[in-house]
Amino acid sequence: MIAIKKKKILYIILLIILVVIILFLYQIFNGNPVSKNSLKAGLEDFLEEEFPDSEYRINNDGFYDYVFGIYIFDVTEFRGNDEIEYEFEVSGVVNPTDIHYFPVNTDYELGAKFGKEIKEQLYEGIGAEIPGIVTQIEFYLDVLEGKYPPDTKWSQDIELIEPFDITFWVDATNLSKEQTLEVVQVIQKTLNNGKYPYKDAKIEGYVFPKGMQDSPIYTVNFDKDTDISLRVMNEHTN
């Protein structure tokens, strides 16, 4: 009789261990349901702040990416007649600690076409005042898929999903800090006069004795309203 009771107790203990293991593995691969619901609520608060003038809809309850430990939510923003699909990557346990998102229904080829046309305009406009100083321009455009025909040319009337960030590499080999400042002012003026929808611009000034150094000697970040002066320039020693 005692042996039978011991066996029952042993079976119960093994069952409990098995259930704990199953729940543990479930949480590893599927996430914590409490965290998922809490983070979804946090995402809703974020959307209210990020898209105050648009309607939006969270399309799923969140997919858990166990490799990176993040929850992925599909979100649709209703902006006028446009529907923009986003993928939101949310990390955290109770409240979101980090949120990254990007549109998914974009026209990559048209965005690249617009980008090439903008680069040509910028090189021409900046080069007319300071030729040979800007060595490289990098940025990326998000254009809503189906919004414009594929042969559309860039113009100020084009609506992007978001303003873009842009980086300029400048040859500062023979430039003083004051001369680099003048270059930055020309770049900002060219961007603003062309009404390019940029959010943040970054200038990196490099020395080219035998090739680009590992890091720039001057860096500047600005937007269209920044008052460009020496105080916003960062000088680095290598």
Secondary structure: helix percent:
25-40%
Q: Which structural class do you get from the secondary structure elements?
A: alpha+beta
Strand content: 25-35%
The biggest sheet amounts to: 5 strands, antiparallel
Shape: elongated
- Termini distance? 82 Å
CATH architecture classification name of the largest domain? 2-Layer Sandwich
Rg on CA atoms, Å: 26 Å
Mean pLDDT: 86
Individual helix count: 4
Low-confidence stretches: none
- Structurally, the number of domains stands at 3
* CATH fold call of the largest domain: GMP Synthetase, Chain A, domain 3
Number of strands: 10
Classified by CATH, the class of the largest domain is Alpha Beta
SSE pattern, N- to C-terminal:
HHEEEEEHEEHEEE
Quick tags:
238 residues; alpha+beta; Nuclear Transport Factor 2, Chain: A; GMP Synthetase, Chain A, domain 3; 5-stranded antiparallel beta sheet; 5-stranded mixed beta sheet; 4 helices; 10 strands; 35% helix; elongated
Task: Describe the fold and architecture.
35% of the residues lie in helices and 28% in strands. By secondary structure, it is α+β, with helices and mostly antiparallel strands. It has 3 domains: 30 residues; 73 residues, Nuclear Transport Factor 2, Chain: A, CATH 3.10.450; 128 residues, GMP Synthetase, Chain A, domain 3 (2-Layer Sandwich), CATH 3.30.300. The strands form 2 sheets. Strands 1, 2, 3, 4 and 5 form a 5-stranded antiparallel sheet that branches. β4 and β5 form a beta hairpin. The longest helix is centred in the N-terminal third of the chain and has 29 residues. The termini are far apart. The model has no long low-confidence stretch (mean pLDDT 86).
